[in-house]
Amino acid sequence: MGVRVFRVLFLTLLGLLVGVSLALGYLAYAYTRQLPDLAQFERLRLTATSVLYARDGTPIAQIASVEEGRAIHRSLVRLEEVSPAAVAAIVFSEDRRFFQHYGVDFVRLLGALYAIARGDLQGGSTITTQVIKNTLLKELAQARSLERKFKEWALALELERRYTKEEILEMYLNIIPWGGNAVGIKGAAEAYFGKDPAALTLAEGLYLASLIPAPNARYADLPGVRQRMRFLLDQMVAEGWVSPEVAEASWREPLVPKGWQARYDGEGNLLEAKLVDPEARLVRQLDFRMAPYFVLEVRRFLEARFGREKVYGEGGLKVYTTLDPAMQRAAERAAEEARLPEGADLAIVGLDPETGEVLAMVGGIRREEDEYNRATRALRNPGSAVKPFVYATAFEEGFTQATLVPDRPLEFPDPSQPQGVWRPKNFSGTFLNREITVRYALDLSLNLPAIYTANAIGVEKVARKLSEAGFAVRYPTLAIAIGGASITPVDLAAAYAAFANGGYRVTPLYVLRVEDAKGTVLYQASPERRRLFSPEAAYQGWDLLKGYVYDLGERGLAKGARIPGRVVGGKTGTTNEARDLWFAGVTRGLSAVVWVGRDDNKPLRMGGREPSSSVVNPPIWRAFVAEALRGRPGGDIPPPSGLVQARVDLVSGKPAPEGVAMWFPEGRVPLPPVEPPTEATPPPPSEPQAQAAPEAPPTPPLEEPHGTSP
Known about the structure:
Its main location: membrane. 37% of the residues lie in helices and 15% in strands.
């Protein structure tokens, strides 16, 4: 009887075991019948953080990719780029038999099956199955089901067949979520400790390993994580992974993750811990190390060039920019130390006049969440800073720096003005009531000679030239000769480059090269230059700009821009009611612009008075340029062939040995006046004529004219 009962029980149990096995086998077949093709693994797009570099290779910013509407901080790294101590800590914590099993750890699997029998689907995961869960089976990652387990095991076996252990471990370190918006070991190392994964210590590796099962909850529980670290260290010693001395040194390391305040005793015991800033570990979608406004412009370029899906949905770009860190620091220091009118903001731009590469950019006095880049988006009237372009256009039409232009009252028909007549004025309301040289007219920054010049050569020609230079010209009226057009600071710097590079308007360039995560070059910059002036006209324009800085000595409007040991040229500009203040200047190796104004375009006031650009802007420009070009060549720009230098009286334009040295086209040098010989003492035909003594220049009030519209 007993044997019969035993046989029945045995057969019953055997039947149950076979039934369970068949059921599990059927479930395994059903769940694994349609597995994702592992070939997709090669094509997986792992979103990654894009890194922006300065021209010297210094990282300047990160652009996080976006998954499911949130910024993800992840940068792909190679296994050898992670400290061995951190790797050991993570492997020991998550899958200490990783290098012995074949994707499925049967020791852990038995424990997992036991847990399943008790209704608990936890356990059994290996590093290999976690790679599968977070990639090919991401849609099932949160599902605690047999379906996910069977699929994970099947795919894990195939993954182990195709890849080495080192390759799988590298995948794991790059895809595992670490809480907040950090994904992967590089994102985690930066988010929690602000360091590169190669510099992680064993203690930091253990901390990160302890977070993996529930990173957000465990981040908020530093004491609990410390207990887990102690447990892991003891086990690592027991199993021979580390020596007791190494474990003790790691325990005594005063570990303080970002956002925490913590205090330890000499034995490594946590005495005090307080989470003061839970968001400290979060990486913003756009994270700056320097030059925030420049970075914003680079981001705009990337979006336009590659599309938002590539930049944010895939990322992983390496973007090599034109930024010069030393010049950028000089620009930011000049902005910080600038004396500005009440409520004013500013923009500073410096670019290479040969290539257009933007070397430094300040788009405003940085305020939190301020993304309005005044350097690239503030389209404002340039005031008198436009006049060098008017005169350079006239040089192409046969004018020279010694050409005489009137500084007298002028009238032009204009139906929009009272009585149908536009009567432009100089800023002071006064005039010399005589003809003066183009050079002297610019030195004094007079309006009337500039308007006369534009009218003489044709306002349509001037308007066309200004448009080619980058100015926004709405109507070709004579007002454009004194600032009645608009331009941004960066475009004005690109236009002024023509006076230093032989006549080319350069296109501002922000990015030199873009590579994807594999190093494939996606974009290679090619500088764009467009002929604006002839080399002869451009150099005469450069000579005019030098004159504006040096001709009048201490009476000069741009004296504040002079830099000892360096030849500079430039022009101020002030618009109506001092709404915009400018200084645009060039020197060897740099074209730079400083703009000052209010975002609401209200008139500026400084100490209760209307400020002038000649007082505000040149010192800022000098502070930036002098520091930016420290140690670099500072000589004059060499002239092109076809120009000769002669000394000329600044006012009358007549040759004068003690006059101002100016450059002229060959055959256009002013000649001394020919005096008719007297009957008593006729001069011999071969004797040179006596040169007239230079005429002393009048001393009217210096001008800083405003841009106006008729």
